[in-house]
User: Which sequence fits this backbone?
């Protein structure tokens, strides 16, 4: 901890004393007590945890620097997987030299639509993987070039399990170039190499490695009505000394005709994956890419490695954009052309309405999703598995804010799903009803249910109170007391299984500006 | 658990009984400069924060999946269009999986302000490390951070408009009169007009949105 603070202080001292310098602190403190969450496990009950994340951002002249210090203290840890820890989790310095920009330390990098590389932070899932190394960017006019190298650095306190996870330390090297405004076109090209630190087989001759090259073409506002994006990636993978090829393609077409718009997307992933070393918290290998899923952002996605599909969204806006109606259709095969092929279809539609001069809103949507085992008989080595429904889901969502008066409004959010899994039916959902007070906070009551696990002693209904308070312009507090349902939560194709929550949680977020 | 509910009740009482924590401008002498950055624009090219020096700048972090953001953005677009001395830079943080939704949303909501793309999150990490959505930063004409607003609730649009009025008035006031209020329309200061690439808007006082 002392070393971390010293490093941060060393880095930020020059900005702190320079005349045109500024330092901004952003601190998030979480105090949590977890009781018995009634999930029939005892290794995640009856403990307390204090987590503090301090972000420091400073600048002096053209130099900018950021650091983050994470600290965690566990009280009454129920297993050895919990560790007290304090460390300098992120440290970055950036400096421009004319058209060049140098970045040293931790940074995120994403290429194209995330197929070739997507190192970034997905807060909702506690996934935060960056690169610790260096990046050199050159930008002039409409051309940009960059090169980067580093080792992958993940956040070591997993906020889902509260367990400590080690950094994967895989080596990523890459370069990209983009030229924009070639008429309506922009063209990009890139290359990425990932070398895994972890060797699955002790005596393998070479480390696992992937080499990827790709490119994209974007045509923007053709005839002021059409935008096209197309990307292709080609990969060579050396996996435990065996060499394979993989490829991926993605394209989208946006068409606008007056108040109508149509979005069509297509995705093809042919065994394409930027695989990293294993991660204890995820229970799987890291994936350093995040291709488009064609799905809703929170949809559980079966497979982001081997898929072929498309989706269509048609939208019509009314009332000068205050009312938007949309309809969506998706059809996708995962593991296409194989005995394990799964067919997925999803249709949903909804409306988004702003009323009372934008002070109230109503978003409602609903749909049906179906996943079926659909084996390709000719690809099956033995007996052909039966084509059958694996999962289905009818879903409805509502987000309704009714402005009452002045700063007061009523807020109702409800997400409900009727699901089947291997022909077993269950229900899952959450409803939150609260009062929002602008610049003061919110008081919300939450009810959740999940009837999937009917074993004795397992909780199926969940009740919680949530209070958010803008205590000062620099301080916010948020408290949760009660029980909240767990389950699989997904963001953009990354899914994590969250444990049920029972207990109390207080979060304090403070901001301070120093110097100026 | 009974103690927990008691604590919750106490917190709730505090919330209801407390006055709003008024969002006020930081006094000019205590403001810190926001370091320059450049991001790709949705409509092509790059946009740098420093190109808007001399204007009141609003940095609005948003994503297509964020419902409060979608309620706040039309207000910000109107404030942007209502006064040449105010520029809203709407920084989109969507990842690749929802990137295709950004252009569609901007068009359907008829948003006129510049949309900047921070898919990698490096600017977000610096200015909004907790990745709160929405988060709105208010910069004075010197590029200094004057106020930060978390989230959006109905009624916040009045607060935003008030802050913009104060910042515009402050820029027009003689030096040392930073607390001036915007009761009267003030002409744009020299060099304070929007750069050519920004969406042009009619010059008028930052009053009610059009």
Assistant:
């Amino acid at each position: 901890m002392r070393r971390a603070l010293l490093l941060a202080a060393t880095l930020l001292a020059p900005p702190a004393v320079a005349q045109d310098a500024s330092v901004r602190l952003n601190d998030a403190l979480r105090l949590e007590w977890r009781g018995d969450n009634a999930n029939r496990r005892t290794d995640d009950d009856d403990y307390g945890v204090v987590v503090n994340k301090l972000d420091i951002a400073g600048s002096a002249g053209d130099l900018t620097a950021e650091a983050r210090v994470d600290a965690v203290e566990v009280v009454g840890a129920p297993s050895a997987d919990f560790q007290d820890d304090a460390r300098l989790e992120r440290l970055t310095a950036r400096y421009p030299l004319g058209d060049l920009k140098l970045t040293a330390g931790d940074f995120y990098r994403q290429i194209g639509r995330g197929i070739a590389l997507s190192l970034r932070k997905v807060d909702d899932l506690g996934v935060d993987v960056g690169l610790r190394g260096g990046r050199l960017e050159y930008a002039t006019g409409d051309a940009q070039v960059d090169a980067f190298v580093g080792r992958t650095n993940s956040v070591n306190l997993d906020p889902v399990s509260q367990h400590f996870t080690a950094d994967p330390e895989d080596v990523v090297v890459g370069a990209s170039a983009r030229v924009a405004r070639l008429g309506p076109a922009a063209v990009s090209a890139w290359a990425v190499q990932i070398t895994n630190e972890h060797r699955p087989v002790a005596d393998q001759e070479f480390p696992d490695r992937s080499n990827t090259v790709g490119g994209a073409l974007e045509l923007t506002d053709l005839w002021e009505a059409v935008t096209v994006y197309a990307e292709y990636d080609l990969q060579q993978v050396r996996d435990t000394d065996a060499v394979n090829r993989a490829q991926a393609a993605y394209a989208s077409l946006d068409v606008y005709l007056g108040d109508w718009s149509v979005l069509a997307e297509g995705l093809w992933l042919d065994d394409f994956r930027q695989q990293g070393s294993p991660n204890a918290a995820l229970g799987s290998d890291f994936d350093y890419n995040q291709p488009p899923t064609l799905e809703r952002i929170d949809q559980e996605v079966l497979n982001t490695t081997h898929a072929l599909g498309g989706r269509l969204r048609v939208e019509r806006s009314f009332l000068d954009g205050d009312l938007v109606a949309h309809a969506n259709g998706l059809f996708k095969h995962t593991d296409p052309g194989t005995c394990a092929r799964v067919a997925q279809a999803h249709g949903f539609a909804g409306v988004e309405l702003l009323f009372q001069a934008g002070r109230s809103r109503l978003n409602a949507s609903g749909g049906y999703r179906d996943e079926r085992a659909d084996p390709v008989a000719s690809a099956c080595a033995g007996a052909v598995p039966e084509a059958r429904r694996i999962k289905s889901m009818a879903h409805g969502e509502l987000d309704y804010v009714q402005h009452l008066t002045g700063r007061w409004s009523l807020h109702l959010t409800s997400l409900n799903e009727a699901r089947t899994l291997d022909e077993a039916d269950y229900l899952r959902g959450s409803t939150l009803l609260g009062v929002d007070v602008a610049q003061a906070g919110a008081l919300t009551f939450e009810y959740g249910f999940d009837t999937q696990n009917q074993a004795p002693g397992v909780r199926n209904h969940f009740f919680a109170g949530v209070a958010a308070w803008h205590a000062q312009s620099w301080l916010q507090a948020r408290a949760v007391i009660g029980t909240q349902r767990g389950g699989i939560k997904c963001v953009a194709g990354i899914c994590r299984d969250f444990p049920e929550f029972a207990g109390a949680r207080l979060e304090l977020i403070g901001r301070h500006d120093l110097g100026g | 658990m009974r103690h927990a509910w008691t604590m919750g009740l106490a917190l709730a009482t505090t919330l209801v009984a407390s006055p709003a924590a008024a969002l006020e401008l930081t006094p000019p002498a205590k403001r810190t400069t926001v370091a320059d950055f450049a991001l790709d624009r949705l409509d092509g090219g790059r946009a740098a924060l420093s190109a808007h020096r001399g204007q009141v700048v609003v940095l609005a972090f948003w994503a297509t999946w964020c419902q409060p953001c979608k309620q706040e953005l039309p207000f910000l677009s109107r404030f942007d269009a209502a006064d040449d001395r105010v520029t809203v830079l709407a920084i989109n943080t969507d990842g690749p999986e929802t990137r295709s939704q950004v252009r569609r949303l901007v068009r359907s909501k008829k948003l006129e302000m510049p949309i900047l793309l921070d898919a990698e999150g490096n600017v977000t990490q610096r200015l909004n490390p907790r990745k709160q959505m929405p988060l709105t930063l208010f910069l004075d004409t010197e590029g200094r951070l004057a106020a930060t607003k978390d989230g959006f609730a109905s009624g916040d649009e009045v607060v935003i408009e008030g802050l913009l009025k104060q910042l515009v008035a402050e820029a027009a006031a003689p030096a040392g009169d930073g607390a001036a209020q915007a009761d009267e329309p003030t002409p744009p200061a020299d060099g304070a007009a929007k750069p050519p690439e920004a969406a042009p808007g009619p010059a008028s006082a930052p009053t009610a949105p059009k």
